[in-house]
Amino acid sequence: MTTLTLAKSLNEGMRKAMEDDPKVLVMGEDVGKLGGVFRVTDGLQKDFGEERVIDTPLAESGIIGTAIGLALRGYRPVCEIQFDGFVFPAADQIITQLAKMPLRSLGALKLPVVVRIPCGGGIGAVEHHSESPEAYFTHTAGLRVVACSNPVDAYTMIQQAIRCDDPVVFFEPKRRYWEKAEVDTSAADGWLPFDRARIVRPGTDVTLLAYGPMVKTCLEAAAAAEEDGRSLEVVDLRSLNPLDAATVTDSVRRTGRCLVVHEAPVFGGFGAELAARITEECFYSLEAPVLRVGGPSTPYPPSRLEEHYLPDLDRVLDAVDRAFAF
Amino acid sequence: MTADASRGAQAPPELVQLLTPEGERVEHPDYDIDLTPEEVRGLYRDLVLVRRVDLEAVALQRQGELGIWASLLGQEAAQIGSGRALTDADMAFPTYREHGVAWCRGVDPVNLLGLFRGVNHGGWDPAEHNFHLYTIVIGSQTLHAVGYAMGVQRDGAVGEDGAATIVYFGDGATSQGDVNESFIWASVFNAPVVFFCQNNQWAISEPLEKQSRIPLYRRASGFGFPGVRVDGNDVFACLAVTRQALKNAREGQGPMLIEAFTYRMGAHTTSDDPTRYRVQDELEAWKLKDPIERVRAYLFKNQLADQAFFDKIDAEADELGRDVRRRCLAMPDPEPLAIFDHVYAEPHRLMDEERAAFAAYLAGFESEESSR
Questions:
Q1: Catalytic residue positions of B, numbered
Q2: Is the pLDDT of residue B8 over 60?
Q3: Residues of chain B positioned with their CB less than 8 A from the CB of A71
Q4: Cβ pair A230, A256 in contact under 8 A
Q5: Is pLDDT at B1 greater than 50 in this prediction?
Q6: Among A208, A235, B264, B281, which is most buried by a count of CB atoms within 10 Å?
Q7: CB burial class (10 A; 0-12, 13-18, 19+) of residue B76?
Q8: How confident is the model at residue B290 (pLDDT cuts 50, 70, 90)?
Q9: Which UniProt keywords apply (chain A) (predicted)?
């Protein structure tokens, strides 16, 4: 066991993947000498060379487009998009090519490309550096979309994403990069499959569904609610597409109440899919409608306002109260 | 306001030509080619057969057997010349109009029809013939080609026996961000890639001056690699220039842009009506530069082929047309549940769930039928 930050866990996971498979490449803006703006790729170029850790020109579509070409030649590129709000120049290559080319080939082609995206707010950044664009990608068939929430999952899930033969959009909660945990870097198997959710705190009264940065917020809310005698179950979805619907519906059938919590705007967000599914599959078990806690349907605000925008412990507990009030 | 087309153009564009529209061989100081009579007859056969396949596809669309078709009429020399320059190890990334290149790579013409008929979105294995799938969104494939070429570099597949990559795109595509990004990537990584731009003068209804103030091949110098304009209706010149560019790429000299100056003699696709935006005189002028007629004239003048040869090729073309038609009509529609196939390479529970639900829904109709 080693104590690692989430950022370092990702770094160690990528390092392990590069050691295991010479076809794994890391590419993106500033990922080489600098080690990435969040230092997630720190030291990789020094150890694996410029051919495998590629400082690219400053053009996101180019990063994904050339990664596709490298994958066609048998490589497994791990691309870093520097910030969530910078992914849109690459959206065409991700949505139109990366997601659809395997189907276009009737299965002849596989595109094992990982698109790493630091996501979410809470770091006092300027515009375009705090967004949560996951719903754009969960809506795109052909992509797998996952989000890690803690150092242990970061270490395993990045390796699982790299090994996966499908393209994976990999969300990293940037404000949790510096969270620490004990990580076992010796084990190479026995990991929870990366398309499975995990119950991170069992409870009996309300199910909280979260992923990425909001998992910690929900755990804090659950601890606070316990003092009021309410038992909240927190499920870390980990994989958004495919969704581990069985774990979700099992939990909701037990608790009878459900909140969905994400930073992204509620309207048309991933929570809408969760709420609809749970309503379809758990209708007779529900004591209250599925409630959604998330950002307002506005662009992400200037950072002096972000504490009002981001769901926090109080917003979650307020929704818990509303769920009980039905 | 209309841009002055002469601004930014320092000198009149030069054009590499080895065979005139009248079928005369001419010399060029930088490029030459030595072809045996057999090879010239082979090129002629290629040109005639791909035009015949194209003609058949247009007819199939007109008869409702294809949803749409993008004709290569007029661009045969650019495609056959460049396509025949490729070695087996080279990789080609096409647009959706590269039927002639597909022919050179050995792709069965019927396979090209699937996406236009609507039975698949492509459906050939790119690795089988080193010919990538057709790309419909304009210019996207240029980045794929450069990435592939970067992979070739990392594999060490360079030198005489190495693999070069060629990517096709049109004049309209040169305005796309992806194409410009691909030029930058290829340049800074010195990727072994050849950019083959078929300037057919029209991007649907928009003439070249809507895309560029300077001749397209001159764009290359701004990115740091050579560019050349070749007579795109001259199969000899296209072959010579592309062969040289591929060789340079294999030998580590980096990318090159070839602008094949040609003309889209047909509509953009079968859904298009060019009479709305261009004049008939323009087409008539380009007909005089036809890519096939000049090879035929060359063969005749130099007594490299007799009438029996031309008749034989025509008969072969007609048989190919009939064969393509017969097999197109025999192409089965996919099964409904094929919608869920190949979306993911690895098991995906949402696909499994939705496939099962849809199968059950369809089965409901079958049991209704059988109970009647």
A1: 264, 268, 277
A2: no
A3: 147
A4: no
A5: no
A6: A208
A7: buried
A8: very high
A9: Oxidoreductase, Pyruvate, Thiamine pyrophosphate
Residue written as tokens 């698949």? B120
- B274: tokens are 């060019």
Look at A107 and B178 and tell me if their CB atoms are within 8 Å.
Answer: no
Q: Beta strands of B171-249 (E only): which ranges?
A: 193-199, 202-203, 206-207, 227-231
| CATH code, domain with B200 | 3.40.50.970
Contact (CB<8Å) A97/B140 = yes
List the beta strands (DSSP E) in chain B: 91-93, 165-170, 193-199, 202-203, 206-207, 227-231, 256-261
Count Cβ neighbours within 10 Å for each residue of A298-323 and write b for 16 or more, e otherwise. Answer: eebbebeebeebbbbbebbbebbeeb
Judgement on whether residues B47 and B172 belong to the same structural domain of the protein:
yes
Residue type, B164: A
If you search the block for the tokens 């007629």, which residue do you land on?
B293
CA distances from B116 to A324, B97, B112, B332 (A): 56, 11, 8, 14
Q: Can A2-183 and A198-325 be said to share one CATH topology?
A: yes
Structural fold of domain A2-183: Rossmann fold (3.40.50)
CATH topology of domain A198-325: Rossmann fold (3.40.50)
The two tokens of residue B251 are: 């030998």
Which residue among A128, A129, A139, A262 is the active-site one? A129
Tell me which residue range forms the domain holding B218.
37-329
What does the block give as tokens for B259?
């602008």
| Average pLDDT over every residue of A243-272 | 98
Q: Give the C-alpha distances (Å, rounded to integers) separating B327 from B47, B248, B330, B362.
A: 22, 40, 5, 29
CA distance A66 to A240: 26
- Per residue in A101-128, pLDDT (tens digit) is 999 999 999 999 999 999 999 999 999 9
d(CA B172, CA A30) in angstroms, rounded, equals: 32
* pLDDT tens track for B149-190: 999 999 999 998 999 999 999 999 999 999 999 999 999 999
Report yes or no: B90 and B161 within 8 Å, Cβ to Cβ.
no
State phi, psi for B230 to the nearest 5 degrees: -120, 150
Could you tell me the two tokens for B234?
A: 């001259």
Angstroms from B351 CA to nearest CA on chain A: 9
- DSSP category for residue B25: B
B103: which 2 tokens? 């022919």
